[in-house]
């Protein structure tokens, strides 16, 4: 027995708190707000914060992702408390905390690089610079706090459980994105108050989210459940293709935002009225889609080269 009851109890309490907190976030935004965004001119559920669709979507995905992973971690923490002689459940529980830390880091990194308009602009002021700097600082802090236990757990040891946890975390994130955006798309298509032209434009914007997230989730699902124990290199290759799909989705999303800039069609802006008109804040969001897509594509190439390399472990 390497881990004392204190470590097991801390893991249990951490996951319990995360399940309660992010479970509420996922249920509220994922079930009551995001799916009904385009259903009618007046939301069935009035959100506690006024925001753009992408803000509600990312809060939904963050809530569901951390709640699901924390629920699995909580189950392992309970098993670790019941059997103090078995260290495997507590290691799995802490590994899930590491994956959750990376998800939170990615959330704030995207706030700084791509979604700065969602929380940095409102009717009163433009706080984008503050949001970008604060998000970057939080990202750095989360990465430091996450990497310390990761090094202690896996330095010089078999890292396959950590890698599989990352793949599973990616599966949960992309799966939650697909489900939420797909339900929103159904709600949009059922809206008869919107003009057909406007509904079609929003439909293609949502498709640019639905399709890449579905492809990425499917590839990561195959890697996690089918090929991980058989061929680790193939899992890396599948993950590379998943990132490639996300990169293509970002490019498509950026192109559509530029093409329809004058049509008051935007998922990152506030201003919904009876006609569902959203005035874009500028071309910054569209351009940053291309920048983030370039980095995502580079990561995709790295993962694919690792999967195809004969020397890669």
> Percent of residues in beta strands?
under 5%
> Structural class of the helices, strands and pairings?
mainly alpha
Q: Which regions contain 5 or more consecutive residues with pLDDT less than 50?
A: none
Main sheet overview: none
- On the 0 to 100 scale, the average pLDDT is 89
Indicate the overall shape. globular
Rg computed from alpha carbons, rounded to a whole number of angstroms: 20 Å
Tell me roughly what share of residues is in helical segments.
Answer: over 70%
Termini separation (Å)?
Answer: 30 Å
The succession of helices and strands, N to C, reads HHHHHHHHH
Number of helices: 9
Number of strands: 0
Write the layout of secondary structure elements.
Blueprint: H1 5-33, H2 53-82, H3 88-113, H4 116-120, H5 128-154, H6 160-189, H7 196-227, H8 232-259, H9 284-308
